[in-house]
From TrEMBL:
The keyword Oxidoreductase is annotated on this UniProt entry: yes
Organism of derivation: Alkalicoccobacillus gibsonii
PANTHER family the record matches: SIGNAL TRANSDUCTION PROTEIN TRAP (PTHR34474)
Record bears the keyword Ligase: no
Keywords from the UniProt entry: Monooxygenase, Oxidoreductase
Annotated segments matching region Disordered: 73-106
Domain ABM: 2-91
InterPro entries hit by this protein: ABM_dom, Dimeric_a/b-barrel, Heme-degrading_MO
Taxonomic lineage of the native organism: Bacteria, Bacillati, Bacillota, Bacilli, Bacillales
GO MF annotations, alphabetized: monooxygenase activity
Annotated protein name in UniProt: Antibiotic biosynthesis monooxygenase family protein
Length: 106
């Protein structure tokens, strides 16, 4: 298993807008081969980061998605007047050494 997190440094006044833009992503990511989980995380701190968490069956599945039209569609600028939603970002990738999951998880 492989986990990739894209940490977005978002000014607090733009967090609500970005949260809304990610609203359909949970559904979108269900259709991506090898994507086991998607979470959009909002740090509790006022100036905290918003993080896109993705979990994959393999690094290869993640890399295939990076090459896909679905990825390109999700990342193209919506209009030329759009400001970038996240002025900077930092990517973190992990191989999963151990994991557990509750049977009751919704
Ligand atoms: C240049 C770096 C990147 C920036 C600034 C960025 C920012 C964004 C933004 C603003 C969106 C929302 C688009 C919208 O609907 O308006 C988005 C979608 C998304 N991003 Fe990125 N992203 C970057 C690269 C990546 C990478 C490398 C990953 C890998 C984990 C990733 C994961 C995702 C996911 C899972 C979505 C939702 C896709 C969907 O709905 O189909 N992003 N990203």
């Amino acid at each position: 298993m492989y986990v990739v997190m894209n940490e977005l440094h978002v000014p607090s006044e733009r967090k609500a807008m970005l949260t809304e833009r990610f609203g359909k992503s949970a559904e979108n990511m269900k259709n991506v081969p090898g994507c086991l989980e998607f979470l959009f995380l909002d740090n509790e701190k006022e100036d905290g980061k918003q993080v896109v968490f993705t979990k994959w069956e393999s690094k290869n599945d993640y890399e295939n998605w990076l090459e896909s039209d679905a990825f390109k569609r999700a990342h193209q600028q919506k209009g030329s007047s759009d400001k970038p939603a996240a002025p900077s970002n930092e990517l973190q990738a992990y191989t999963v050494a151990h994991s557990s999951r509750s049977e009751n998880e919704s």
